[in-house]
Structures are given as structure tokens and as C-alpha cells.
Amino acid sequence: MDKKLILDVGNIEYKSKKSETKSSFDDLKKDLELLPKILMLFESINIKSLKIDDNEFKIILNEQDLYLDNKFVNLSSKVDITANQILFDMQSLYLKDYEILFNGKIKIDYFNNNLNYFGNFYYQDLEAKLNVDMTEDLAKFYIVSSPFKSLKFIKKFLDLPKEAQQWMYDNVEGDIKLEGLYAEYDLKNNQLVEKSLNGKAQIKEAKIRFHKDVDVIQTKNLDITFKDDNLHFDLIEPIFKGKSLAGSFVTIHNLTSAKNGEVEVHIEANSKLDTDILDILKAYKINLPLLQKSGNTNAKLTLIFPYELEKPMTTKGEFLVSDALISIGNFVFNSKNATVILDGSNVFVKDANFKYKDMIDALVNINIDTKTLKSSGDAVINSLIIKKDNGEKIVEIKDKKTPLEMNFNKETIINLKDLETTVKVTDVVSVNINNLSKIYPYSKLLKDISIKDGNITLDIKNDNNINFKALIKGLNLPIQKDGQNIENLDILGTINGKNIDISSIDENIKLEVRDDLKIYLKNLNITLDTKKQDTNSLNQNINLYLINSELNLDGTIYKIKNANIFLKKEEISFEVTLKDLDIPLKKDGKKVEELTLFGVYKNNYTKLNTKNSDLILELKNGNISLNVNGYDVIYQTEDKEEDSNNKNINIVGNNSNIYVNDKYKFLADNFEVRVRDNEKFVHLQHKKTDITLKISKDNKVDIFTNEISDEYVNAIFDKNIFKGGKILFLASGNLDNLNGKIIIENSNIEDLAIINNLLIFIHTSPALVNPLLAVPSVVGMATNSGFNLTAYKIVNGVMEFNYNKEKELLDVKKLVTVGNGIDFEGKGKINLNDLTLDSEIKLIFLKDYSKIVGAIPVVNYVLLGDSNRVETQVNIFGDLANPSISTNLTKETFSIPMNIAKRILSSPSMFLDFISGKSSLEEEKKKEEPINKPLK
Fold first, then answer.
1. What is the pLDDT at residue 743?
2. Rounded to the nearest 5°, which phi and psi values hold at 767?
3. Cα within 13 Å of Cα(637), Cβ side
4. Which of 146, 219, 389, 906 is deepest in the core (most CB within 10 A)?
5. Contact assessment for residue 893 and residue 773, using Cβ atoms and an 8 Å cutoff
6. What is the DSSP string of 275-337?
7. Are strands 708-709 and 489-496 parallel, antiparallel or unpaired?
8. Residue 509 parent element (H or E)
């Protein structure tokens, strides 16, 4: 049949149970398969309406044009038919179900069952050049596009997991340009061959979001490649909050596999590791417990997230830190360099230089678990120095390696294990040193004050606000409490700027550091050695306040009611009230037990004085000067004289008495004591009484007195011993062997046990029953003024003695008194160890007989004998305070008649001598030496 048919139909409707056309691709395929047969049979076709089941066609075909329109396809094209090929110059091909428009050229090779398309296609805002190579089973596409807004158009053709869709369609913003996309479509199965996809795209000024909780990253370009099911985003000049992330990229591996798909985010930064960078990590639940405030960090971080949530995330990172200021919480430190390795939930900090102010310089290696925010490792402390404002080092640790533990949960905790020290960082920095003995080898301060053990906790709000609490053990301070050295002490303290306050828990010890240092001590004992104190080294003034305390000053203990002591660089001044004093001073008859003194020490000069200056003590260059007015001085003979470094001692007293052994009172309107290396001198004056004592370098002693009054002597013994008259005392020798003499004139002895006992004994003796002797004696007693049983008047008296210190013996070599009715001659010894005496005293009495009978020559001899007196010997012995007395007075009384008879027989010769005017030799001797007259 040579001629072809012409078909012109208005409306055809056909029902077919075999119609299975479901899409434009199916429909287009069937139409292309049918087209060669139609062209062979028909010259032209014009079907205005052809309904086949639910699909309606409109077909126009002639030698040049083809128009087809149905449910799925709208085609308008020029047609050029050759033997085995058909060429279409399409004005348009619109796939209605996909909303894709094509225009271009199609070549159909029916011999090879091949179709080629070269042209454009349009989909939503996508305009691209398309090359298609289609066989019966497979269509191959290569696309190059103009810029468009989104890749979401692929959703209809590409079934991707949710995570892949987010990166393909949501996490990237910007105009996309496909630089080349290759894809294959399975025509039999009507689906895209996903593994065939590969291509390149670029997004100008793209915005990419790594995580929904992280701000977008601005880029100059975003280069996208897709190959082997891997979608790669290469960020060109990326900027995140002003920071360059050059080198960062995102790769989606196994894009189309829900099982094996994973997203790889690689971030590179060369900036501070600040909150902006840390927020990216936090979005992925990676918490680095630090913040970089300055310096630089070269960071490389790779995060890999599988599509399947049950699979673990992979995290790898490396952070090279340099010249950084880093804070952990409120704890800020410097790090010159450090390497931080992130591996999963573990952060390895290697060779991190750690520097805190001028205090700490260390090299740290630690492992941080970002899940638990705990870490462990070690630190090499190059230097740890705590020093005062003046540069003096309190603690200095060098080249010390210690295990290190850190916890970065709600609060940062750093544990230096070898040093048993914990640092906790919250709003405040708390430093807890559990064992000060670990710090002791490195602390000059702890060594100086002998703090060998204990613990301390410091709460540091800032450099100017620090609170601390400590238990200090092993103290070696010169402080005692309740008789025991204070070895352990609980203290509390605060530091506010330059102000420091420290107090013991019981508040017995307080320190206040301002411009001056104030120290308060209460209820304590303090020991000070002035030879070891040097105020010239003081850097600030010290005020020391003592309350109810004891001060052991160079071995002398002072009980202090209160004291204010002010120490300056070259001067010490103080005001002190001493209590419970045991000093050799009396005031108004009472021992001084409390005394308030003011004092100053400067340039080796010390001065002490009372408020009204009635006591002044001065020490300078080894010289001591004491002035007292109204104070009585007490001297104890039992006190041993100690060696003294003092060169000269001067003591001057006014209206001040001297007490010896707190018993014997020496009155003094004024006195002076001078002690020199070669001489000791004492001089006292009281009214007319004057006493001088000199001791030479070779211990030679000279004592001179004149007119010692009865008042003076009675005051010494605190009893009325003498009344009236005067006494002279002279002595010389040395302190071990002293010879002396006491001379008494016209003085009554009223209260002396020896005399009282002796007088009572005499007047109660058997001699009183002898009428011959008793009557004149009574007459004599009545006529001698001042004579009574408890008093004895000495008209003249002398006692010569020797004092031997080694034997503690007072040897009275001669005692002679002339008194009222009785005279004494004798000697004796007093043992000063037990205060006993042993003496022999001759009593010369019945002097009235001597006066009367002595004028009658023969009778004188008959009654009185050759001595012309009546005498007896008395032994006085025993306790010096109440001695015993024995005598031969009774024996001599009864033997008087026999003596008289004897003398009568010899009296004629004496009588003749008397008549002739001759005197016996004895009488001549007595004329030369008056009876019982003391030598002066």
C-alpha cells in the first residue's frame, strides 16, 4: 500500500482492561514505541478527543508537526522522519505528573532502540540543560543548571532517610547551581537508580547549619559533590560569628542507605575556643569544661552521626592552644601552649602549659571524660610560689610531679594528690590543703613558725576577698595555755584587700593586718627572748595587746592584767598593767601586787615609768638606773646573787624604806645604791641617822653609821627595844668574815627577851631572902631612874663581834654594859642557822653596898673582897627568842659568911695599911680602871 491514511476523528471513547499507564514516563514510553507504526500507516492524524479508560488524548500529526496531549504528557514538536530515525525539534514536552517541562531536540533510533535528548528542562525554579540517553530499559541524565533555590525537587525522585533529607533540603540555604549531575532512571521499574547519581554543585553565599541549635555559618561558596552515594559539602571561606572556619566540610556517607548512612561534620577553626565555638560542641552534647578568653586555638574537629540513633556517634578532634587565657568556671589561668585531643567522650590534654598569675607554672597531662566531666592525669609543677607584697616567698615548690584529678560537673574540683590539696571552683575558689606537712618542705613561713602539720581551707571570692579556716598542728610558738605549749590551733580568717583578720576559735588569739599589724592575746602565757628579737627588720608597725596573760621575758615571769605594746622599726613603746607581782617593792605598807607602767625602747635605751613617775627605770648600754619615790624596797638575804651583764647599777630612793627579808625595816628619807665592777656603795639617811656601806672589788667591806636613833632600831625589829639614846655601828672585813663593834649610850632596853628573862631571874633568886643584902638593894633600885622588871637602861655599852658566813656564826667576843643596878660583862656565840645562843655573862649588882661599904676601908675589904664588888656568872643558852638561864648566885649567897670570916682574919694588915695611908696594889689598879666602864 503506497498511500498512507489520513485520520480525522472528532471523538473516540474506548474501554480497555489492559490499560496500566500510571505515569508520564510510562505513557511517554508507550507513545514512543507506538509512534513508528503510526507514522507508517498515517499521513496525518487529527483526533480531537480519544478517551481510553481514564486517559483522554488529543493528537495532531502531519509530515512536520506532532502534537500530543493526554493525562500525563503534553508534547509539541517538529518532526523529521528518516529511514530508521525520527528527529523531534520540540517546542515543549511537559510531564504533567512531575511538572517538568522540556524543550530541545530528540533523536529516536528505532533500529538501535535508542533515544537521545539535548535541550533544556524546567522544574519549579530549576532551569537546566539536560542531556538524556535512553534505551528501552534505562534513561541516563546529565544536567547543568542555572542557579536555583533548593534541591527539594529531588524528593519526588529520591527516597532518602530523614537525616539525609535534612542535609539535602534543610541545612543549606542559598542559590544552587548544578555544575554537573549524572543520574540513571530504571524505565522498567520506574525508579531512579540511586547509585548512579554523581555530580557537582555550587551555592553562592551559602548558609549552612551544622545543627538546629547552632547559628548558621556564612560562606562565600559552598561546593557540593555527590559520588558513590556520598554527598560532600566543602565550605569556602566560612565565617561563624565573625570567626573563620576555613577547612570545614560536611560529608554524608551512604546518603541513600538508612542502615549505613552517616553524617560527617568536620570543623576547623583558628580562633579562640570561646562560647561561640563551644556552643557548636554543646549542640552535639560535647561539653569542654573550659573557656578561652584570649590567644588562639587551631582546632580540628570531626563528628560522625549515623542515621540510626542506636549507633554511637564518633567524635575526633585536635585543639592546639597557644598564648591563651583560659577560665575553668571562675578560675582563670594562662597557657602558653597545649594540645587537646578529643576522642569520643574523652578529652586528652597533653603537655599543657599552665600558668596562674605569678603563682603557678606547671605542665599538665590529663584525660577528661566529657560524659562524667571527670578527669585524671598528672602535673609537673615547674614552680609554685606564694609570696608577700614585698616579694618574700611564703611557699616555693619547684620541679614537683603530682598525680592530678579534676571534676568539672556543677563545680570544678582539682585534686593535687601528692600535695593532698583540693581546689574547688564555683562562684568562689576553695583551696583545701588536707596535710600541711606536704607543703612544709617548700614553705619558709611554715618552717619559721614551725607549722609542720595541719590543714587549711581557703574560700577565694577574688584576690581581695578571701576567707579561710585552718587547724594548725606541730606549732613551736612561744605561747602556752594552761601550762601546756600550744601545739595545735584552730583558726578562722578573712582577707579583704590589704586587710587581714585571723582569730583562734576560742578568740584567745587574734591578728589584724592593716597598715599596722595588731596582735591580741588573751588568757595565754608568752615567752620572749629579747636577745633574739630584732625590730630593725620590721616592715610594718606591730601593736601587741595582752589580756590576762603571763609574759616570760628573758626568764622572768610577769602576770599581765592588760598590756598594749607598740613595735615600730627602731622603737618599742608599751603600756602594761602587771598583776600578782612578786617584786621587792612595797607601797603604803602593802606589797605591790599590781602596777601600771609606761615604757619605751629605742637605740638600746629602755625606760619604764609609772603614770606619775614615782617609779622610773632606765637601761642603756648595760647600765641600770632606778628611781623610786614612796616605794619601799625589799631585800632577801637568801637570794643568790646572779651574774649580770649590767655594767653599772644606780638606785635612788626618796621617802622609801628598805626591808631586809621582808622583816627588818630600814627607814630612809632617801637612799642611794651604786653597783660597779670594782665597787658597791649603799648610803641611807633618815633624819640624823646616816648609814654607809662600801664593798670593794676584793670584797672588802666597810660599814659606818652615826647617831642611829631608837626610832630607827625599833623600826628595824618592829618592836620597842630601845628608848632614847643613840647607837653607833662600825664593821669591817669581808662578806665572809666581818668584825664589828656596837656602841650604845643612854638608852633603855625595853623589849628584849634575853634582858627580860635575866632581870626576872635575878629578882626572883634566893638572894632576895637575905635581909643583909636585900634591904640596900631595894633602896638602890628605887633610887636608880628607869629601872623596872621589863626595862634596862644602858648608860654605856659596847659589843665587839665577828661574823663568819661559812659557819653562819655570830661570835660576840666582848659585851660590856653599865646600867641601872646591874652591869654586864661577858661573851657568847649565836648560831644563825637555828637561831640559838650559848653565852657566859657576869652580872655585877648590889652596887649600893659597894658605894657605902667601899668608903670604909676595913669593912670594904671584909664585905666586898679585893674586887670591891659583888658579882655572879650567868649562862644564857637555847632559843634566841626565849633563852634559858642558869647561875651560881644561890651558892655564892650562902658562902658569903665564910668569905667574910676569912677576910676578917686577914683584915689587921689591911687596916694598918689604911692607917698608914698605903694603898694595896689592887686598889691602885682600880683607881686606874674604873669598875665596868666600857671602852669607846
1. 92
2. -60, -20
3. 9
4. 219
5. yes
6. HHHHHHHHHTT---S-EEEEEEEEEEEEEEEESSTTSPPEEEEEEEEEEEEEEETTEEEEEEE
7. unpaired
8. strand 509-513
What backbone phi and psi angles, to 5 degrees, belong to 293? -95, -25
Taking alpha carbons only, the member of 816, 832, 821 closest to residue 788 is: 821
| CB-facing half-sphere around the CA of 764: CA atoms within 13 A | 9
DSSP 170: I
* DSSP one-letter string for 787-836: -BTTBEEEEEEEEEEEEETTTTEEEEEEEEEEESS-EEEEEEEEETTTTE
Q: Could you read off the pLDDT of 284-301 as tens digits, one per residue?
A: 877 777 788 888 888 898
**What pLDDT score was predicted for residue 851?**
56
Phi, psi of 45 (to 5 degrees): -135, 135
SS3 call for 621: coil
Are the C-beta atoms of residues 454 and 488 closer than 8 Å to each other?
A: yes
In Å, what is the CA distance from 107 to each residue of 63, 182, 489, 501, 802? 16, 20, 104, 99, 163
Closest CA to 710 of 723, 693, 696, 719: 723
768 SS3 class: helix
| Three-state SS annotation for 37-90 | HHHHHEEEEEEEEEEECCEEEEEEECCCEEEEECCCEEEEEEEEECCCEEEEEE
Please give the Cα distance from 80 to 91 (Å, whole number).
14
Interacting residues of 284 by C-beta distance below 8 A, sequence separation 6+: 211, 303, 305, 313, 315
Amino acid occupying residue 131: N
Which secondary structure element, helix H or strand E, spans residue 175, and what is its range? Answer: strand 172-186
Q: What share of the chain is helix, strand, coil (3-state, %, to 5)?
A: 15, 55, 30
Query: Could you tell me the sign of the dihedral formed by the alpha carbons of 186, 192, 197, 201, in that order?
Result: positive
pLDDT value at residue 906: 47
DSSP codes, 744-761? EEEEEE-S-HHHHHHHHH
Tell me how far apart the alpha carbons of residues 724 and 844 are, in angstroms, rounded to a whole number.
24
Write down the pLDDT at residue 140: 92
Query: 663-672: long-range contacts at Cβ-Cβ below 8 A with a sequence spacing of 24 or more?
Result: 663/718, 664/716, 664/717, 664/718, 665/632, 665/715, 665/716, 665/718, 666/691, 666/712, 666/715, 666/716, 667/711, 667/712, 667/715
Phi, psi of 759 (to 5 degrees): -65, -45
Angle at 666 between CA 749 and CA 812, to 5 degrees: 50
Contacts of 13 (CB under 8 A, 6+ apart): 50, 51
Contacts of 450 (CB under 8 A, 6+ apart): 474, 475, 476, 477
Query: Rounded to an integer, what distance in angstroms lies between the CA atom of residue 162 and that of residue 149?
Result: 20
List C-alpha distances in Å: 493 to 341, 434, 449, 458: 42, 17, 18, 9
* DSSP states along 378-440: EEEEEEEEEE-TTS-EEEEEEEEEEEEEEEESSSEEEEETTTTEEEEESSSEEEEES-GGGTG
Closest CA to 247 of 195, 186, 298: 298
Q: pLDDT tens for residues 132-164?
A: 998 888 989 899 988 888 777 777 766 778 888
Q: Tell me which residues of the chain have a pLDDT lower than 70.
A: 1-4, 12-41, 50-55, 83, 157-158, 329-331, 387-392, 445, 448-450, 463, 530-540, 638-646, 751-791, 821, 845-870, 888-936
Q: Hey, what's the cell of 714?
A: 625599833
Over its C-alpha atoms, the chain yields an Rg (Å, rounded) of: 66
The three cell numbers locating residue 366: 590529663
| Structure confidence at residue 142 (pLDDT) | 92
pTM, to two decimals? 0.54
- Alpha carbons 208 and 890: distance in angstroms, whole number: 147
- Hunting for cell 605561747 — which residue is that? 479
